[in-house]
Design brief:
The protein has about 240 residues and is of the alpha/beta class. About 40% of the residues lie in helices and about 20% in strands.
């Protein structure tokens, strides 16, 4: 009898393992901290499943998908890259899941109280506007504020928002543009929230990729991000909640 009970348990475990799924997520670099908490909360409700998140500039991730990279969900820092994938029939129609906040900050090198403080800095970290939506917003803010021509020679262009963050932390730049979510917890940070009138809203969108082998679970994670529980986590990291 004990033998048959053990056999039944082993068989049951084997059946359960068949239902375990793994998600491959491509996510904008500005989501590095918030998405880890969202992932943890989601997997508490899906203990048998696993998830791997690759963080990079949205434009770089977009390029990799067009080159054949397979994944389940693309969580961008803007709407344009997911829309391009949708138009290319590589992903579902994008949905906005949050709105980002652009900041200018320093990690203790100087106090930041206005955009004019860039005039005193030797170097200014800026995520690449071609691939990083926050870099695009920063460039727009610089031009609309009339400061671009005055600080252009000081700009140190980073591959992604994460690298721009490291430029400031390592003192390779005295000041830099970033997402509020990336710098809010820095101990010695001096942070200026950039006037939202100076740049277009950073509406961040996501799409389920057509290459996904786990569309059902991808949709569950997608829905979790949009749920009150997911939105609460985003709000805690300094993102604007969906209306």
């Amino acid at each position: 009898m004990k033998f048959f009970m053990k056999a039944a348990i082993v068989a049951l475990l084997g059946v359960n393992s068949l239902f375990a799924s793994h998600l491959e997520i491509l996510a904008a670099a500005n989501l590095r901290y918030v998405l880890q908490d969202v992932k943890t909360a989601f997997l508490k409700e899906h203990p048998k499943d696993t998830m791997e998140i690759t963080f990079d500039a949205s434009g770089r991730l977009y390029a990799k998908v067009t080159q054949g990279l397979k994944a389940d969900l693309f969580i961008s820092a803007d709407e344009s890259f997911p829309n391009k994938l949708y138009e290319a029939k590589l992903a579902t129609k994008p949905v906005v899941y949050t709105q980002g906040i652009l900041v200018l900050w320093s990690d203790g090198d100087m106090k930041v109280t206005s955009l004019d403080d860039m005039l005193k800095a030797k170097n200014i970290a800026l995520p690449n506007p071609q691939t990083a939506p926050y870099g695009r917003a920063a460039l727009e803010a610089l031009k609309n504020s009339g400061l671009y021509s005055k600080v252009e020679s000081k700009i140190a262009t980073a591959l992604s928002i994460s690298q721009a963050n490291q430029y400031v932390i390592s003192r390779n730049a005295q000041i830099g543009f970033n997402a509020l979510s990336m710098v809010r917890s820095q101990k010695n940070a001096s942070i200026l929230v950039v006037d939202s009138k100076l740049y277009s809203p950073i509406k961040q969108a996501m799409s389920i990729l057509n290459s996904s082998d786990n569309k059902a679970l991808a949709k569950e994670f997608y829905d979790f991000i949009l749920s009150p529980k997911g939105q609460k986590i985003f709000a805690e990291y300094g993102y604007k909640a969906l209306k």
